[in-house]
Specification:
It contains 13 helices and twelve strands. The chain has 323 residues and is of the alpha/beta class. It has a seven-stranded parallel sheet with strand order 8-7-6-9-10-11-12, sandwiched between helices. The structure holds (2R)-2,3-dihydroxypropanoic acid.
Length: 323
């Protein structure tokens, strides 16, 4: 008898066909249905040997309910903060993620958000669409210079390093913060200098957050850290919302304590402070850091490989826990 899987996902045709060849597939295509509420999602998970999910919350209670049958949760994301990995490990459930395939796309978006907020692209777009462009552009939308400025990367994993390569091309001086320093050769290749978080916050004009969300990185940026930043500095968060205390950021932006922010993620996602859209010095995007078509397909492809390998007892390409 075939094992059964639930995909709360779109999947490329060949991926879907391959999964159907090996498993009984229950698919809810996220393009057609949007997100499922917890109860409906949980109903689909019941009786499945494996699930492939798009950042659905898979909590301890759900894992306990399906333990014994459920063998693998293949997350279509590199971050796994939506899953209680500790509880999964306790129940012997394999968790997998999708590293590498999204590195370049997220690095691109990090740079896009930096440039958008620094050069006021979204503000200028709104102005132009509103028919306000009437004459001489000289006085319009003076933004920040990029070349020669200091660029701070917080979280220097694969994506941070890909971003550093881009920043180098823009002629930025790169500081980075990471618990464990990179080796000297990699620092040299990237042209990046290690700094303590406080030092980086004090010196950088542009600060990009790329840390995973863990108990240690929750509220890494609060009023204290925002208070250390330069008044002409910009904060870009493309990691996870709770890394920044949103209320403190809103206060800092309103008070012009810092020059601006670009946010792809929010502390209470998908909700965010009503104050943010009122501010001109803010760019807001709906958690689309890895949303390029090739990358999204690559993520689903890798998640499907993980799902299949775990259920067929083969080596799992990107395991998160040891079971
Ligand atoms: C990730 O991979 O963690 C992204 O946030 C998903 O879009």
């Amino acid at each position: 008898m075939k094992k059964s899987v639930f995909l709360h996902s779109w999947a490329p045709d060949d991926v879907l066909a391959d999964l159907k060849e090996h498993f009984d597939v229950d698919q809810v295509n996220i393009f057609e249905t949007g997100s499922l509420d917890r109860e409906t999602f949980n109903r689909h998970v019941a009786g499945k040997d494996g699930i492939l999910v798009q950042q659905n919350r898979v909590d301890a209670e759900m894992l306990a309910e399906h333990a014994g049958k459920l063998q693998v949760v293949a997350n279509v994301a590199v971050g796994v903060d939506n899953i209680d990995v500790e509880a999964a490990t306790k129940h012997g459930i394999q968790i997998t993620n999708t590293p590498d395939v999204l590195t370049e796309a997220v690095a691109d978006m990090s740079m896009a958000l930096t440039l958008a907020v620094a050069r006021r692209v979204v503000e200028a777009d709104r102005y132009t669409r509103a028919g306000k462009f009437q004459g001489n552009p000289f006085p319009l939308f003076w933004g920040a210079d990029i070349t020669g400025e200091t660029f701070g990367i917080v979280g220097m994993g694969r994506i941070g390093q890909a971003l550093a390569r881009r920043a180098k091309g823009f002629g930025l001086d790169i500081l980075y913060h990471k618990r464990t320093r990179l080796d000297a050769a990699t620092e040299k290749e990237l042209g990046a200098t290690w700094a303590s978080l406080d030092d980086l916050l004090k010196k950088a004009r542009f600060i990009v957050l790329l840390t995973p969300l863990t108990p240690e990185t929750k509220h890494l940026i609060t009023a204290r850290e925002l208070g250390l930043m330069r008044e002409d500095a910009y904060l870009v968060n493309i990691s996870r919302g709770p890394v920044v205390e949103e209320a403190a950021l809103v206060d800092a932006l309103k008070a012009k304590r810092i020059a601006g922010a670009a946010l792809d993620v929010f502390e209470f996602e998908p909700k965010f402070s009503d104050e943010l859209p009122k501010l001109d010095n803010v760019v807001l995007t709906p958690h689309i850091g890895s949303a390029s078509s090739g990358t999204r397909a690559g993520m689903v492809r890798l998640a499907a490989k993980n799902l299949k390998a775990a259920l067929l007892g083969e080596a799992v390409p990107s395991p998160v826990n040891k079971v």
